[in-house]
């Protein structure tokens, strides 16, 4: 069973940026972590502090603590282990 953690406090979003997604945009106000807080498998982020099911989100995929992909309704952007982005 996957564990979900909802974050919407400013210090929690900063913790997310500091520990898992350094490139997290400044307009992110809330997030849902899937899996362990220490090593999430996926993170969905929102620009709304209390998002609804209809709000746009950006999904980040994390493997072994490394951000490997991010995407939204426009598609998936893959980031390789050397930090280069592939469309």
Can you describe this structure?
With 87 residues, this protein is mainly beta. The protein has one domain. The protein is built from one helix and seven strands, in the order E-H-E-E-E-E-E-E. It has a seven-stranded antiparallel β-sheet with strand order 1-2-3-4-5-6-7. A hairpin with a 4-residue loop joins strand 2 and strand 3.
Keywords for this entry:
single chain, disordered C terminus, mainly beta, 87 residues, 7 strands, globular
Q: Report Rg.
A: 12 Å
Query: Any low-confidence stretches, pLDDT <50, length ≥5?
Result: 73-87
Strand-and-helix sequence, N→C?
Answer: EHEEEEEE
Total DSSP helices: 1
Distance between the termini: 32 Å
**Biggest sheet, in brief?**
7 strands, antiparallel
Q: What structural category characterises the helix and strand content?
A: mainly beta
Strand order of the largest sheet: 1-2-3-4-5-6-7
Mean pLDDT: 79
Helical coverage, percent range? 10-25%
Q: Which word captures the global form?
A: globular
DSSP, total strands: 7
> What's the number of structural domains?
1
**Proportion of strand residues:** 35-45%
Topology record:
Elements: E1 4-7, H1 10-19, E2 30-35, E3 40-46, E4 58-63, E5 66-72, E6 75-79, E7 85-86
Antiparallel strand pairs: 1-2, 2-3, 3-4, 4-5, 5-6, 6-7
Please sum up the structure shown.
By secondary structure, the chain is mainly beta. It is built from one helix and seven strands, in the order βαββββββ.
């Amino acid at each position: 069973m996957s564990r979900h953690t909802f974050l919407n406090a400013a210090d929690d979003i900063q913790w997310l940026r500091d520990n898992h997604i350094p490139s997290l945009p400044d307009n992110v106000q809330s997030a849902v972590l899937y899996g362990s807080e220490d090593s999430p498998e996926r993170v969905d982020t929102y620009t709304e502090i209390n998002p609804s099911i209809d709000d746009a989100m950006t999904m980040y995929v994390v493997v072994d603590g490394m951000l490997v992909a991010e995407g939204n309704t426009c598609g998936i952007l893959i980031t390789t282990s050397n930090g280069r982005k592939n469309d």
